[in-house]
Design a protein that fits this description.
Structural class: mainly alpha
Radius of gyration: 20 Å
Number of helices: 16
Strand content: under 5%
Shape: globular
Largest sheet: 3 strands, mixed
Number of strands: 3
């Protein structure tokens, strides 16, 4: 009986630091990713662009710009949080007696499964919108996540400062390696496409090459190391670090040189925030992770009433893959049924909220099912 308070304290501490991580993931999925993809499937106004070459997006009004730009921190958050989760899982499994080899095999298997789900499950969903069907093999977010997880399984043993240095090298190296936007239509070999250079043609189209997005994963690993060793100090630095990153974004963006991948296209505020996402430019990384870290710090210090109200969001955050795959098909079907020719953004916002309400019981049921499975179960991979 004397051990119970200590065990309870440990569990409470773990739950406290995991709340902020799960909540950030859940809010990102619900408020950025789901809205952004509702724009694609229902409004059919999702812009094509934000690449290192080609045409940059043009927005017809402020709401259209806001609807897209509010989603920009989403993908960086997912990759960052995957790195955090990998480090937390490694710390937990090694304490339970797993060998390094067993842990690497676990991550490698999970990475290949994510890639398989990209081609077998996610890609058909993207073709639901009428007129958007393509014969090109699409290498999207799950492909990039899977590849980053496979490589990350070999990097997770590095020291935090080595991981941060590697993060900087990946961002800077990507910008140095890429040619100017005038080379957009030049041919690149498949390996360059899959690893470094977004774009493609009629055979393959790569939006998430592995190495540029790996930078967010290695940053997440460094953060995850801090969470496992000194969580209070790590979370205490979230808000000031986030503010510093946003200030750095403003400076680098204003100078409009290295770090932008492409020059600012006009003089408006929308142009200032119209950033290159594919691959993630340095300015996008600074803005997205600055916002994510500030939000993460606020979530960590949030009061109890807010945490209780956030429980539905936590459910989404603890079932990310199920939410991702289910929401693609759900919003795709909603778009076909209610707006086959597209809808206004106010109507889209309504159906975005309806979709979240439908997704909640699905994710809640799956979370209960998943956590009943043993740690080695394939169901726990997702």
């Amino acid at each position: 009986m004397s051990d119970q308070p200590a065990v309870s304290t440990v569990k409470s501490s773990i739950a406290e630091r995991l709340f902020a991580i799960d909540a950030l993931r859940g809010f990102t999925m619900a408020l950025t990713m789901a809205l952004d993809h509702s724009n694609y499937f229902i409004a059919q106004q999702h812009p094509f662009g934000e690449y290192w070459g080609g045409k940059m997006p043009v927005y017809p009004n402020a709401l259209a710009a806001f609807t897209r730009m509010v989603g920009l921190p989403g993908a960086p958050a997912f990759y960052f949080l995957m790195g955090v989760s990998m480090m937390l899982m490694a710390h937990s499994r090694l304490r339970k007696g797993w060998s390094k080899q067993r842990l690497i095999r676990y991550f490698v298997l999970r990475g290949f499964l994510l890639m398989a789900l990209q081609f077998l499950v996610a890609n058909p969903a993207w073709n639901i919108v009428a007129g958007e069907k393509t014969s090109a093999i699409y290498f999207g977010a799950l492909y990039g996540l899977g590849g980053a997880m496979i490589i990350g399984s070999l990097l997770i043993w590095l020291k935090p400062w080595h991981l941060i240095l590697l993060t900087a090298m990946l961002f800077v190296g990507t910008e140095i390696y890429l040619p100017g936007p005038q080379a957009w239509r030049e041919a690149f070999n498949p390996l360059e496409r899959l690893l470094l250079v977004p774009g493609g043609g009629s055979v393959i189209w790569v939006s998430f090459p592995i190495l540029p997005w790996l930078a967010f994963v290695t940053l997440g690993m460094a953060f995850g190391f801090g969470v496992t060793h000194d969580p209070k100090r790590t979370f205490r630095w979230c808000i000031p670090t986030g503010i510093a990153m946003i200030a750095a974004f403003a400076g680098v963006r204003y100078l409009d040189g290295f770090g932008n991948l492409r020059p600012i296209q006009g003089d408006s505020l929308v142009d200032f925030f119209n950033l290159v996402k594919y691959p993630p430019s340095i300015v996008l990384g600074l803005l997205a992770m600055g916002a994510n870290l500030i939000f993460l710090g606020l979530l960590y210090y949030s009061p109890g009433w807010f945490r209780r109200l956030s429980q539905p969001i936590i459910v989404f955050g603890q079932t990310p893959l199920q939410f991702y795959l289910a929401h693609l098909y759900l919003y795709g079907v909603i778009g076909l049924l209610v707006a086959p020719q597209g809808a206004s953004l106010p109507v889209t916002y309504f159906w975005w909220i309806v979709g979240l309400i439908i997704l909640y019981p699905v994710c809640y049921w799956y979370r209960k099912f998943k956590y009943r499975q043993p740690a080695e179960s394939l169901w726990r991979l997702f």
